[in-house]
Design brief:
about 170 residues; about 80% helix; globular; mainly alpha; about 0% strand
Length: about 170
């Protein structure tokens, strides 16, 4: 029985990936989006806008939340409130989380292209996606350079303090 529990923590399951998307936060965003859509027009919201708009918001927010987990994994590991998150416990690797986030964003890009393909905005959609992915690649390059040259983070002292107080903070 102990080996089964140990194996469960060493291998990611679908719930770990779902947790990366911060589903409760995404649901709150979708509720806000729905309220905004219904308040924006008296004529009613077309079902395509309602479904695809909220699907796009959910994909974008889920992908951003997964990236946030990767960025905050060291801080999450030493905080009492967040030390059980998938990346902090090592159930999901940072590379797997980033691939998952990329898949969500590729899904969003596919959704955008499906929605604008039959309109007159094909070129605009393609240019926007190219700009988005270029900015994302530039950001990743800057972060990779910082990781390779081991530049210290502005939160380095805070991480050391949290590491020293970890026993006191954990229940």
């Amino acid at each position: 029985m102990a080996t089964l529990i140990g194996e469960r923590h060493s291998q990611a399951i679908w719930r770990d990936y779902l947790e990366l998307t911060k589903p409760k936060v995404v649901v709150l965003m979708l509720i806000t989006s729905l309220v905004g859509m219904f308040l924006a027009t008296r004529a009613g919201v077309p079902w395509t806008v309602l479904v695809f708009g909220n699907l796009g918001i959910a994909l974008c927010a889920g992908g951003a939340a997964a990236v946030n987990h990767v960025v905050d994994r060291r801080i999450d590991a030493v905080m009492a409130r967040t030390h059980k998150r998938p990346l902090a416990e090592g159930r999901v690797s940072p590379v797997a989380a980033l691939v998952f986030a990329l898949l969500l964003l590729v899904g969003l890009s596919t959704l955008v292209m499906i929605l604008v393909w039959d309109t007159g905005y094909r070129l605009t959609g393609i240019i926007c996606l190219c700009v988005f992915y270029s900015l994302a690649a530039a950001f990743c390059g800057v972060r990779l350079k910082a990781a390779v040259f081991d530049e210290s983070t502005p939160f380095h002292a805070t991480l050391e303090e949290l590491a020293n107080d970890r026993e006191r903070l954990l229940p």
